[in-house]
Amino acid sequence: MSNERDTEDRPVDGASESSDHDPGPDDVEEESTPEDSGGGFGSDVDVEFDAEISEDDDDLLGGLRVESTEDIKVPEKLVDQVIGQDHAQEIVRKAAKQRRHILMIGSPGTGKSMLAKAMTQLLPNEDLQDVLIYHNPDDGNEPKVRTVPAGKGDQIVDAHKEEARKRNTMRTILMWLIIIVILGYSLFIGNILLGIIAAAIIYLAFKYANRGSDAMIPNLLINNADRTTAPFEDVTGAHAGALLGDVRHDPFQSGGMETPSHDRVEAGGIHKSHRGVLFIDEINTLDVRSQQHLMTAIQEGEFSITGQSERSSGAMVQTEPVPCDFIMVAAGNRDALENMHPALRSRIKGYGYEVFMDDTIEDTPEMRRKYARFVAQEVENDGRLPHFTREAVEEVILEAKRRSGRKGHLTLLFRSLGGLVRVAGDIARAEDAEFTTRDHVLQAKKRSRSIEQQLADTYIERYSDYDMTMNEGGVVGRVNGLAVMGDDSGIVKPIMAEVTQGHGEVIATGKLQEIAQESVQNVSAIIKKFTNQDINELDVHIQFLQSYEGVEGDSASISIATAVISALEEIPIAQDVAMTGSLSVRGDVLPVGGVTHKIEAAAKAGIDTVIIPKSNEQDVMIEDEYEEQVEVVPVSHISEVLEIALVGEPEKDGLVDRLKNITTALERDRQVPSGSPTPQ
Ligand SMILES: Nc1ncnc2c1ncn2[C@@H]1O[C@H](COP(=O)(O)OP(=O)(O)OP(=O)(O)O)[C@@H](O)[C@H]1O
């Protein structure tokens, strides 16, 4: 197993073949010391909570003996604050040592940028550099670039300024001496006007000379003097100038009023993150040209700065190459992979790591203690929220369990969990409460509803206004399907099916065509076997009533199959039943996502029974208020779905029996008699 993980974490192909000074991942393993794995970053070391811990495994706070978050110690270093994501933490630790790039893919708010920031605390900061841009006397449009150890840049600029100041003072004294002499002489010869003109010319000549010596002062492009950790630059959504550097436009351009080109040079994120971390979220939204330049920068480790706007005088200027030896942490959601520049992706693949972020983590006493610490951390970071009582923290942890959507797990979507903590704290603050209590958290849960949840509730309201919600009686071909909207809300989506004579076509509109087609194909074996009807001679019309948001073809499979079978056999479907589940071609009901939210949506719509896949049974964590309103029936086969959903014996019974017989026959066919040769 450990070997598997080792192979998985190795940079793909090219990484191990790269230059000599780059240690391979195995070298790094040997180099690791207990210290490296300590401090809570990929460590097994228990976290110091500065509080007693009891052995009570059922305790919602993992045995943490505290009265409120006030009693919980929050670690100072970001690396010690990261919860879960063990694999990503390990990769970040390795990549920091090997100076490899990372591609992090995962849901928003799972800690991608937090980990990238934490990475800077693992990089050495003693080899940081300052970058200076000098005027080039041979070519004013190609400023010179020099690097010096961090902190020296300031000193060099100060020394140049001092030198220029001294030179200017000397010149000024000389200028006034000359002017006094000229004015004195002009008084002496009685031509004061000539004297004033001569003095003015001399004044301007000296001013011009002084400007020339000011131009010799270098521009401190990157100043790392006060850095305690390696730099971190977040260039998410940055335009080309902010990413690659820019040269400002000069409206005067010539005639003595212009600003020297080296003074107009601005560093980009790639330069500021030299020897640090460049973080780019939503990497797929970066325009192609920027992605190409980024690849060049990664390859060369240096990148000249030029004006990004073609019409600006800055475009005439191009500096010597400026160092940009950064570690890139590119991040995105799953769809980022599709739109990312293939060459950039293959560069990361070849010379770095790819890591998928976890959405949930196993619920253990140690984890709960960390979640309690997370609440304390959010309170501390905000600085204005009242501390949370023990019961309030327990409620947050319960919500983390619920949001995971999986039994025995906690959600790792910390951004939204942090949002809940802040809303609860704000409610408590508005009441001038000393502590944030469980009641405040419960109120916050109601208030901090996502757009999707609000939209789902609006739909429910509207449906009932127009009597669209059906939760009683029986209707042929109409099923209350269930879908998820966003991450955290369910909605009842009625599906209608009608069957007519035709040519085996599945008729639906737009996006639904694809979904419906696939679903009908998936269930056609069942329909054919069990209805004795050849659907090649029929047209199946399917309609997802109202809209198609949130409809995933797969989880609507049992609903579509039920609607079609009902329409074919003209047996009504009970409208106080809703259902969700995927379906195999042999009629097995397979697991789907978001069952808890779907059940709650059904309960809100007044539905009495919800059919879910048996394998999802353990994921159900509905709120207490819905528990009594709705009966959840886990099923493993379509025959069970029909048994519950169809109404009107004896037709229904005949149909279900037929289906059961077919299923038994299918089961028999599936079994290979012992001793029989293995099929080739
Ligand atoms: N694994 C984690 N451990 C502790 N806190 C976390 C974790 N992940 C996220 N957080 C909290 O959530 C906040 C947001 O996380 P972060 O910005 O890192 O998410 P992200 O994955 O980069 O999301 P996005 O892609 O939307 O930018 C962090 O500032 C931190 O407070």
Automatic annotation (TrEMBL):
Residues the record marks as active site: S555, K598
Transmembrane stretches, start-end: 173-206
Extent of Acidic residues compositional bias: 25-34
Lon proteolytic domain span: 473-648
Subcellular location: Cell membrane
Membrane topology: Multi-pass membrane protein
PROSITE patterns given in the database record: LON_PROTEOLYTIC (PS51786), SIGMA54_INTERACT_4 (PS50045)
InterPro entries: AAA+_ATPase, Lon_arc, Lon_proteolytic, Lon_Prtase, LonB_AAA-LID, Mg_chelatse_chII-like_cat_dom, P-loop_NTPase, Ribosomal_Su5_D2-typ_SF
Sigma-54 factor interaction domain segment(s): 191-351
Name recorded for this polypeptide: Archaeal Lon protease
Record organism: Halalkalicoccus jeotgali (strain DSM 18796 / CECT 7217 / JCM 14584 / KCTC 4019 / B3)
